[in-house]
Specification:
This protein is an alpha/beta fold. The chain folds into two domains: 180 residues, FAD/NAD(P)-binding domain, CATH 3.50.50; 115 residues, TATA-Binding Protein. The chain is 31% helix and 23% strand. The termini are far apart.
Length: 373
């Protein structure tokens, strides 16, 4: 005999920062919320783990309390440069950002929700019904939210064009715990992560120390030459003595879309996307955790204001979420920056000379691009 069907008001596919923020925002709303995640937490997520302070504020997390049982590396500045060119370091007396480990951070966020969380359960099927959706042949709901990251299956249903045409950022990264000897010899200053731009400005590499953990990676706009750029960046780090000679070599890859280049719709009847599923990472810095968290909270606000539970998936309700998101993050239209209009050799020439200049590093790269001050 088939198991009886369950019913929910909202089913969230993915319990990363976007999904858990939506669930947190719906806490005590009286709505029945189910989260499905194919992984079991704590789970790894490829990420440098750089989080800006507004993320903690938005989620009501006290950094000091979080740091009591999780890795939390305060950041006071960045070391900025361009591959093979000059470098300079910025410094602020205040904490400008934090370093976290995603396996810890995401598990913590998910544990703060009061939703029905089903770990180890993938979205296997999504069937349209008269008044909503049937999820995995077992849960009926008027609204299904795609929070499954870049490869979210709900996002695939809402895709406007072929997946191969999405202008994505491809990245490769490793995070490992240094041995006591490696940690002692490591010259990377934990309070000042290094960002090294590629000369064509289509991406950057980073090395980021969080206590005994070292995170090294590189992301760029064209995936074809990614490994070549990564190798060259690692070569520079090795020559500068910043990498332990016997570090692990198993780099892994992932991808994401930038806000102003993501050809993804935010909703359709009974479906909505948040976080990487919607392609919301900030252009320039690639910061994606903050937009993931804020989009989840914005959708929660819209849903709390819906006139009744059966209107949760209605286009007029979800259009409110889209409006709020565009108000918050601006138009999704890609506006070419000055460097997009210059010939490539000139961009390389200017980047090599300007990016590591102390004032440009401080005022443009760190304040404007990375901290969005
Ligand atoms: C190499 C790299 C470095 C980055 N560094 C930073 C950084 O330092 N700071 C920053 O702010 N951003 C960074 N980003 C971006 C950031 O990681 C993402 O923007 C962020 O994780 C988005 O959160 P999310 O909740 O939307 O998706 P995710 O964190 O990807 O969570 C999605 C969840 O959905 C689950 N899921 C997926 N498919 C299914 C399915 N079919 N069924 C059920 N569950 C499913 C997954 O298991 C996962 O738990 C980086 C990205 C990359 C690739």
């Amino acid at each position: 005999m088939a198991a009886p069907l369950e019913s929910a008001d909202v089913v969230i596919i993915g319990g990363g920062p976007a999904g858990s923020s939506l669930a947190l925002g719906l806490g005590e709303s009286g709505l029945r919320v189910v989260i499905l995640d194919r992984a079991r937490f704590p789970r790894d997520k490829l990420c440098a783990g750089w989080v800006t302070p507004p993320v903690f504020e938005a989620l009501g997390i006290e950094p000091e309390a979080y740091a009591m049982d999780h890795v939390l590396q305060p950041i006071h500045g960045f070391r900025v440069g361009v591959s093979g060119g000059r470098e300079s370091a910025t410094h602020s007396d205040e904490v400008v950002s934090y370093g976290i480990r995603r396996c810890e951070f995401d598990a913590h966020l998910l544990s703060r929700t009061d939703s029905d969380v089903r770990e180890g359960e993938s979205l296997r099927s999504l069937e349209r019904q008269a008044s909503g959706w049937l999820v995995n042949d077992s849960i009926q709901a008027p609204l299904v939210v795609g929070a499954g990251g870049h490869f979210c299956p709900v996002a695939r249903r809402l895709m406007l064009g072929p997946k191969s045409e999405e202008p994505l950022i491809a990245a490769q990264e490793i995070e490992f715990r240094m041995t006591p000897e490696q940690a002692k010899a490591c010259p990377v200053a934990a309070e000042t992560p290094q960002i090294s731009f590629l000369r064509d400005l289509k991406g950057y590499g980073w090395i980021f120390r969080k206590g005994d953990w070292l995170n090294v990676g590189l992301g760029r706009q064209d995936r074809e030459h990614l490994s070549k750029h990564l190798e060259s960046f690692l070569g520079e780090l090795r020559r500068a003595g910043r990498l332990p000679p016997d570090m692990p070599k198993d780099f892994h890859g992932h991808a994401y879309l930038l806000y102003d280049q993501a050809p993804r719709r935010l909703f359709d009847e009974g479906l909505a996307l948040i976080g990487d599923a919607a392609g919301l990472a900030y252009p320039r810095s690639g910061e994606g955790i903050r937009p993931a968290v804020e989009s989840g909270l914005l959708l929660a606000r819209t849903l709390r204001n819906a006139s009744s539970a059966d209107k949760l998936g209605a286009p007029e309700t979800l259009a409110g979420y889209e409006r709020d998101l565009l108000d918050r993050f601006g138009s999704r239209e890609h506006r070419p920056g000055p460097t997009d209009r210059l010939p490539a050799p000139l961009v390389r020439f200017l980047a090599a000379r300007l990016l590591g200049h102390p004032r440009i590093a401080r005022d443009i790269v760190v304040r404007r691009w990375f901290l969005r001050a």
